[in-house]
Amino acid sequence: MLSPQDNQLVTNTDRGTPMGELFRRFWLPVALSEEGAGSDCTPVRVQVLGEKLIAFRDSEGRVGLFDAFCPHRGAPLFFGRNEESGLRCVYHGWKFDVTGACVDLPSAAEGDTFKDKIKAKAYPCVEVAGMVFAYMGPADRQPPFPEFEWAALPAGHTHVSKFRLECNYLQAMEGDYDPSHASFLHSTLQDVRIPNPLDSQWGNRNRLTPLEKPVDPSEPFPFAVGNRRFTSEVQAQSAALEDTPAAVLSIGVRDLGEGRKVAAAGAAWMMPIYCTAGISGRDTYSSNMRIPIDNESLMFYRLRWKYAPIPQRDIDEHRNGEYFYPAMIPGTWTTRDNVHNDYNVDRVAQRNFSYTGIKTFPLQDIAMMENQWGPIADRRQEHLTSMDYMIIKVRRRLLAAAKAMAKGIEPEAPWHPEEYRWHREIVMLENATDEEATAAARAKSGEQRTKPTAQRAAAATTAELAPKPATESAAVAG
Ligand code: FES
Ligand SMILES: [Fe+2]
To answer: Which CATH class is domain 27-137?
Structure first.
């Protein structure tokens, strides 16, 4: 539960608000590279953090991101002529390069000198892994780009798409680190997890509460709950959380019986919107980014990446399979099954196969997220439980950072780019102690990589590198 004041504080990312200013201290995804494909492309309308913007690629292939309105008299730059290394407003012909500098002002005799006083509001951009990221804060506080592992990978190792949600960023993001929902929302009646088409061993390796385990005879709802119930025994194996300057680490271990342990570790959340949960193909990792369009809608950038090239089979599945990425209405960023058609919920499937009747992972989540008492959840009405521990933790982090911002205290996280090298790992070990299992998961998920560069170099010379886990890893459903 949050007070109305705190709920407003944490959900409002408009310019000039504490959370809005906090967001504007980070690099944030604002478009897919493909939206402005080719030099001198058609300008693209973009809205981020409530700001109406225009993105374009100039003759040299550089990306520009401007306020959508011309600094002369506010005409829409969407209609601009994109040519000859810049965008020219078609109202009176003023022209701007990607930095926003006015390079030509032909509509007045004093234009040659007056243009030097004019600047379009422009944000610096970088292109990484098929996305355009922008920094929308004060120039003197521009941080380095976060050292995401996927940012350094060659093309073919990443796959990204995006879709629009009709709700505030926070309730959507909170679904990523909600440890008690997957067993219900993402399950089938035959199993606690929907089979993964890209990982045939998924069930055997990752099912944490296997169906083969007999349902407790005292379970009053053996069909609808079965092995899904979070007993105190299950809950005792919940992940522990650790704060770092930029992230919340989640580290847990479970006993699978017969000497087997499964340990999971990683930064479940990194400031302010970077999450690492999500179902993927084998040895494929996730980065989920939900960036406010405004306070009641967001764009969800859903990235999957591998150290090796992503097989074409996986790409085809992502594009067409509707399992990892929902089908879209052509020419839009709106999912075909959406809030306006109740996600085409199939009640026959719900009775006989699927827990929800909604196809599939992302849509099941979205159907819950888009209307939690409306597009901005009224958190006064919540009744959180102990299994909402991660949600409570991240809210505290965001609120503390926003309240600090309101007092003029700048966030530390943007200046820890190395912390963004965490990803989420699960390892399975045989005959290991809990400590050995969690140490293996921590090591693989980024413990060494996320130290500042000097410490990494020192550790490398003393061979303090990750121990090898017994089996391969996989990302988890989320
Ligand atoms: S409004 Fe754009 S040049 Fe006049
Ligand atoms: Fe989920």
So the answer is: mainly beta
Find out whether the beta carbon of 207 lies less than 6 Å from any atom of ligand 1.
no
Quick check: 470 pLDDT over 50? no
The residue type at 429: L
CA of 355 to the centre of ligand 2 (A): 13
Ligand 1 probe mutation, 77, 89, 103, 104, most atoms within 8 A of CB: 89
44-48: strand order across its sheet: 44-48, 51-57, 63-67
Rounded CA-CA distance 25/135 in Å is: 7
Q: Examine residue 471 and say whether the peptide bond preceding it is cis (omega within 30 degrees of 0).
A: no
Q: Give dist(CA 376, CA 168) in Å, integer.
A: 5
Question: Does the CB atom of residue 120 touch ligand 1 within 6 A?
Answer: no
The two beta strands, 63-67 and 51-57, are: antiparallel
Q: What is the pTM of this model?
A: 0.92
**Nearest residue CA, atom 4 of ligand 1?**
92
**CATH 2.102.10.10 region(s) of the chain?**
27-137
Can you say how many angstroms the Cα of residue 258 is from the centroid of all Cα atoms in its chain? 36
Dist CA 276 CA 292 (whole Å) = 18
Domain with CATH 3.90.380.10 in the chain: 149-465
92 CB less than 6 Å from ligand 1? yes
164 Cβ closer than 6 Å to some ligand 1 atom: no
Distance (Å, rounded) from C-alpha 366 to C-alpha 286?
Answer: 17
Q: What is the mean pLDDT of residues 188-198?
A: 77
Q: Is the CB of 78 under 6 A from ligand 1?
A: no
Question: CATH says 149-465 is which class?
Answer: alpha beta
In this structure, of 334-338, 414-418, 466-470, the range with the lowest mean pLDDT score is 466-470
Burial class of 359 by CB neighbour count within 10 A (0 to 12, 13 to 18, 19+): buried
Using left for φ > 0, alpha for ψ between -120 and 50, and beta otherwise, residue 178 falls in: beta
The angle subtended at Cα 28 by Cα 66 and Cα 117, nearest 5°, is 25
CA dihedral 466, 310, 271, 411 (to 10 degrees): 80
Strands (E), 258-334: 260-270, 274-275, 285-294, 297-305
User: Quick check: bond before 43 cis, omega within 30?
Assistant: no
